[in-house]
Amino acid sequence: MPPLLVPRRDDALPERLARSAAERRGTLIRTEEVLGWIDERRRANRFRVERIPFEAMRGWSFDPSTGNLGHDSGRFYTVEGYHVTIGRGVEREWRQPILNQPEHAILGLLTKTFDGVLHVLMQAKMEPGNCNLVQLSPTVQATWSNYTKVHKGGDVRYLEYFLGPRRGRVLADSLQSEQGTWFDRKTNRNIVVEVDGDVPEHPDFCWLTLGQIGSLLRQDNVINMDARSALSIVPFTSGADAALHADTDVLSWFTGMRTFYDLRAERIPLAEVPHWKRGPDSIDHEDGRHFSIVAVEVEADTREITAWTQPLLRPCSEGVACFLTRTFDGVPHYLARARVEGGFVDTVELGPTVLCQPEDYAHLPAADRPPYLDLVLSADPARIRFDARQSEEGGRFLDAVLRYQVIEIDDLPYDPPDDYCWVTRDQLRAFVQHGHYLNVQARTLLTALNSMEET
């Protein structure tokens, strides 16, 4: 009878991941050639995205009784109303449009070792909302509606490595959230699988090391949001045990934040959302801030279906997502915030120090703007450790770009406000292995931190 027990951990994996992260030049394709390869894939295929009025959409319509915007199939997603109330002393309450997409998506990274170095299979993927259309995505990025062919399109390549009988070894696997301000409880399965055998080739895919991906992440709008999310769960460890707060103490603080807030969020008819006006080609807030709902017509030779129309959420301005960092006794720490967002599954997730669209607060006095925002906006460039603009989910958002930063500030206090906590990179790495602990913007920044040498 074969042994029943197996090791709980792969003790060799951290060293293999570190070796891949250290290989920045590339072995199968040189790093300096990757952008040219993406451009070649962009030129080799036909892509077109055009704004259209709502009435020109095919298969999408507004419900005459609720005003909700949905697909005739009842699948994909709907644009509905949302009523959010957050209780903490003085209650905050508002109504807004929201994207409701109850089905899970798969964000899968396929990995394989070449010449002793672990590589990741990345896809040059067109998404209609990307500012430059084509970016590097996970090996598989597909919703349930996509891979069950609700749209009657083609097969999702490499899906068989992530569904059904196992064809490889799982390195990481967890359910993670998307934007809780724009989605109602949206969850994706982030999964990393390693294979040993031959993998079919396709011209829209290429193998890159973790170090190459980390280098490309420092450039604007190259690695898409879903790839950044899936990369964040790669189980790096450095063996550093020291931190300002023990893991149990951080988790206790985090659990306390989750129980402290009284969050009530419910979908309501879109027609009942005040201060938002529907026109022939957009739904907008009356003050011109926040975001709009618009419609687009898309052509893309490389997608499972080559032509379609759909609504997208379009932010009115660029956002910022920043971790402030300070070193305590030689160990870098990052100031995480317990963020409450209406669309979170469990009320609170750890987010960056600052996360907002600054223009939404530009008209307010300093005391009413998000904490630390003015410090981030006025930071000395010499203190910025990471700085790149990155697109958010291009399948649902149009021209949604955040400026991601890590900024070192030496005189930040040891004791921050109650909803903030100092954590190390290794603590973030441990927490992201659990679903709904780090929000999607914090996961992008963790992927950036994983690509950086800490001092």
From TrEMBL:
Limits of the dTDP-4-dehydro-6-deoxy-alpha-D-glucopyranose 2,3-dehydratase domain: 31-233, 248-449
InterPro entries reported in the protein's UniProt record: EvaA-like (IPR005212), EvaA-like_sf (IPR038153)
Single GO MF annotation: lyase activity
Name the UniProt record assigns to this protein: NDP-hexose 2,3-dehydratase
Pfam families associated with the record: Hexose_dehydrat
